[in-house]
Amino acid sequence: MKKEDINIDQMMKILYHKSGLLGISGISPDMRNLRSNMTPLKGEKKARADLARNIFINRIIRYVGSYILEMGGLDSIIFTAGVGEHDYGVREGVMDSLKLLA
């Protein structure tokens, strides 16, 4: 905060409103917008959108994978809500990695 000369309120705004998927992608905090914008994006914008999606998928893999190991396996995985229901790429990315644990 000293280096950037910002106060606590400014830092809170950055953490709550400008980080996460938005901070990584530079496009949107909403995965739907990243998904719909993937094809027309080029160059640096596409690379950042890809990075945001890959980090998102990796976080799911790490979280679910740790529970699979803790439970000693699983019978099924159910994807729900917006991303789980409508984003084949996220589901595929997660399942491709988790099949190693099945």
CATH topology: Nucleotidyltransferase, domain 5
Structural class: mainly alpha
Proportion in helices:
55-70%
User: Which consecutive residue ranges, at least 5 long each, have pLDDT under 50?
Assistant: none
Query: Overall mean pLDDT score?
Result: 88
Going by CATH, the homologous superfamily would be ATPase, nucleotide binding domain
Shape: globular
Topology:
Blueprint: H1 8-17, H2 20-25, H3 31-37, H4 43-71, H5 81-86, H6 88-98
Helix pairs in contact: 3-4, 4-6
Protein name: Acetate kinase
GO molecular function, one term: ATP binding
Pfam family, one: Acetate_kinase
Explain this structure.
By secondary structure, the protein is mostly helical. It has helices spanning 8-17, 20-25, 31-37, 43-71, 81-86, 88-98. Helix 3 packs across helix 4 (43-71) and helix 4 packs across helix 6. The termini are far apart.
Concise account of the structure shown:
With 102 residues, this protein is mostly helical. It has helices spanning 8-17, 20-25, 31-37, 43-71, 81-86, 88-98.
Task: Give the tags.
102 residues; Nucleotidyltransferase, domain 5; single chain; mainly alpha
